[in-house]
Amino acid sequence: MIFSSYPYLIFLALTVAAFCVLEKRFPGLKRTFLLLVSLVFYAWWRVDFLALLLGSTIVNFAIGTAITNRHHAGQNTRPLLIAGLTFNLGLIACFKYAGLLAASANELFAFGIPIPHLFLPLAISFFTFEQISYLADAAGGRAPRYSFLDYALFVSFFPHLIAGPIIRHNDLIPQFAQSRDQTKRSDDIAVGMTLFTIGLAKKTLIADNLAPFSDAVFSAAHHGAAIGMADAWMGTLFFAFQIYFDFSGYSDMALGSACLFGIRLPMNFNSPYKAASIIEFWRLWHISLSTFLRDYLYIPLGGNRRGPSRRYLNLFLTMLLGGLWHGANWTFVIWGGLHGVYLIVNHGWRTLTRKFGLVAPRALQPVTHALSVLITFMAVVFAWTVFRAESFASAARMIAGLAGAGGNSHLLTFGPLAAGALATLFALVWLTPNSMEITWRLKPALETRYRDAGLRATRWQWKPNTATAIVFGLLFVVSVMALSNLSPFIYFQF
């Protein structure tokens, strides 16, 4: 039951309708109801993995509660935290990385280890990271005692369960207990449906229609074909825009689904291709993952507190592990390593410019900014080549193609239609406001994160009038009509 599917649309409509009735007549039951429907949502994929989700929730709740009790009693919480981390990381290692580790050991040392072929439980990376953050906060005295109902709902709340955002307990659980003013329900419905419609359009009208073109090129590279320069660039650019609108669309639909229940999730996507540096890119792309890696990996490793060399090493290690989080393939590690190198170069350049006062004249700053955006975008696009490739060999063929050393394949035709499509995509990404800016008036994300993002109102802002209703109503209908070719969101595989 992916967000861009008829079953989910029916499920969401029925759930929201029932929730509104319960909230008005039996408000004490709304959390129990949301937990039950969230478990049904997860079980829709595979009922047998529901036991894994519940088991993980029960174990982490028990460990977290014990840690909190020990902290309040002034006792050592470290052994319990280590036990919790071992459990969670072991769970991911078993289901997600066992095959990769076994294959790598066989390749390097000829061990002959049987390679396990385990089906990856849906959303395991997301709900495991969320629970790791809870345990770490509990050990640091930053997590209060929660009821099991609240904690289980925090883990399984279906709008963020499958592909994030990776949310923290203190951002979500307090909202469950809040009594929502019934006069604001219309605003919740309005912003929720608006965001959901924008996200659905991004997914069905843009991302899914780009997939066949990028897939054709990367599939050919995977099967050993030499890739010509035009094909390589078109395939890579189409994938860059595909994953952009795919993940942006999912993020909008997740926030929109939550808004329908009066819940605000943290913003997870904020026009990252407008970034003028790799540092800025990672503040705008998958914001919740970047924040998690910063707070629970980079800073514990020492952050920037132990000199430049250690800082750069910490950055590199953080991005390597961030890449590995995305999937059990060494190509993801290389992708993360590339971004680690990008960040090191970016921080080093900032240090040099500040040290020597290298600032462009005011008249040239728009030009230098545009150039910075372009360089950042091209660096990100190059890294996407490795991210999308299924093996080192296919990545090498794609890179050779980008450099003009891959042959003369003619998989895609770069004509007026393709040029127009790319021009439209560039215009949508760089010249139009994002969904958060459009819905500024109704504050669709957590207030603190929303302010921190530096968003401002736009003349394209959502307004409660007939014209807005017609535009988004038509957009919703067109997007629903495009649901014939269902494809899962790219981040569902992580």
Task: Please tell me about this protein's structure.
There is one protein chain. The protein has 494 residues and is mainly alpha-helical. The chain has two domains: 175 residues, no CATH class; 308 residues, no CATH class. The protein is 68% helix and 0% strand. Helix 13 packs antiparallel against helix 14 and helix 14 runs antiparallel to helix 15.
List keywords for this structure.
single chain, 494 residues, mainly alpha, globular
Topology overview:
Elements: H1 6-25, H2 30-43, H3 50-72, H4 78-109, H5 124-139, H6 148-156, H7 158-161, H8 169-177, H9 185-222, H10 229-259, H11 278-284, H12 287-298, H13 308-325, H14 330-356, H15 365-388, H16 392-402, H17 416-431, H18 435-438, H19 447-452, H20 466-481
Low-confidence stretches: none
Please state the CA-atom Rg, rounded to the nearest Å.
Answer: 23 Å
**Structural domain tally:** 2
Number of strands: 0
Q: State the share of residues found in helices, binned by percent.
A: 55-70%
Q: Report the structural category.
A: mainly alpha
Mean pLDDT: 91
How many strands, what sense, and barrel or not for the largest sheet? Answer: none
The fraction of residues assigned to DSSP E strands is: under 5%
Outline of this structure?
The chain has helices at residues 6-25, 30-43, 50-72, 78-109, 124-139, 148-156, 158-161, 169-177, 185-222, 229-259, 278-284, 287-298, 308-325, 330-356, 365-388, 392-402, 416-431, 435-438, 447-452, 466-481. The chain is mostly helical and 494 residues long.
